[in-house]
Amino acid sequence: MAENPQRAQRPRPLSPFVTIYHWPVTMATSITHRFTGIGLAGGLVVLVWWLVAIASGPEAFNQFTSLAATPLGQVILFLIVWSGSFHLLNGIRHLAWDMGFGFAKATAINNSIIVIAGSIVLAAAFFAAAYTGHGGYYQ
Amino acid sequence: MSLETPLHKVEGLGSAHSGVTHFWRQRVTAAALVFLGAWFAVSALGLVGAGEASTLAFLSQPLNAILMAVFVIIAAYHMALGMQVVIDDYIYTAWQKLSLMLLLRAFALAVIAASIYALLRIAGPL
Fold first, then answer.
1. Do B41 and A44 make contact, defined as CB atoms within 8 angstroms?
2. Whole-number Å distance between alpha carbons of A139 and B48
3. Which end of chain A has the smaller Cβ count within 10 Å, N or C?
4. Is the predicted pLDDT of residue A2 greater than 60, yes or no?
C-alpha cells in the first residue's frame, strides 16, 4: 500500500476510558472491593500496633486506647470496620461467583446493592453496639 | 496447531509458571477469613472499653491467643496475595514491580513476626 499521510494523521478511535462510562453499581462494588482491601492492609498495621501495645505494658496500652478514643481515631476505626464489612460481604459474593452463582445481570445489580447497604448496616451496628454499652462483654 | 510443547501442556502451569496456585490460595484464605473475621469482630466488640488487665486476660487464654495468631497470619497472607494483584495491574516497570513485591513480602512478614512476638509476650513465656 502507498503512503497516505492524511490517513496516518487522522485520530484513530480510542477505547473509552473508565471516566467516560455511566457507572453501573457493579463497577462501584468492584473498585470498592479493591480500595477496601488496600485500606485493610492499613488496618493490619493498627491491629499489630494494638497487639504490640498490649504486650508492652500499661503505658503503651493507654497511649493506644486514648488515641483510638479521639475523634480522628474513631473515624479511622469506623473506616476500618466498614472496609472489613464491605470486603467480607463482597468477598462472599466473589466466592459465590467462583462456584458459578450470581452472574445474571439483575442478580449482580441486586447483590451489589445488598453488599453496599449491608456493609453500612454492619459497620453502623458494630459502632451502635459499642456506643450503647452492648460491647465490652469480655471485661 | 498449538505452540505449546506437550510438557508445558501437561504441566498446566500457564504463562505465569505457577498455574492456579495464587488464585486458589486467595480463595482458601478468603474462606478461612470469613470465619476468623467473624470471631475477630465478636472479640473486638467484646473488648471495647476493656482495660489493660481484662485485655491481657482475654488474649492469655490459649484458644484466643491461637485464634488471634492464626487470624493475623492468614490475614497477612491474604493481604500479600491481594496487594500482589494490585501491583501486577498498575506497575509496569520491572525494577519498580520487583521492589514493591519485595517490600510487600517484607511488610507481610513484619506484620506476622511482630504479632507472634507480641502474643508470645502476652500469653507465653517471653
1. no
2. 9
3. N
4. no
| pTM confidence score | 0.90
Handedness of CA B90, B94, B100, B105 (dihedral sign): positive
Q: What is the four-CA torsion angle of A57, A58, A60, A61, rounded to 10 degrees?
A: 110
Q: Check pLDDT > 70 for residue A117.
A: yes
Kindly state the average pLDDT of the residues B22-49.
Answer: 97
Residue partners of B105: CB distance under 8 A and separation at least 6: B80
Task: Look up the ipTM and state it.
Answer: 0.91
Tell how far CA A139 is from the center of its chain.
30
Find chain B residues with C-beta within 8 A of A61's C-beta: 52, 55
Residues of A in contact with B117 (CB under 8 A): 52, 55
- Interval B40-98: pLDDT, tens: 999 999 999 999 999 999 999 999 999 999 999 999 999 999 999 999 999 999 999 99
Separation of first and last alpha carbons in chain B: 63
Which residues, 6+ apart, have CB-to-CB distance to B48 below 8 Å?
A: A130, A135, A136
Task: Quote the percentage of chain B above a pLDDT of 90.
Answer: 83
Q: Which of B54, B111, B114 has the CB atom closest to A139's CB atom? A: B54
Instruction: Give Cα B74 distance to the centre of its chain.
Output: 4
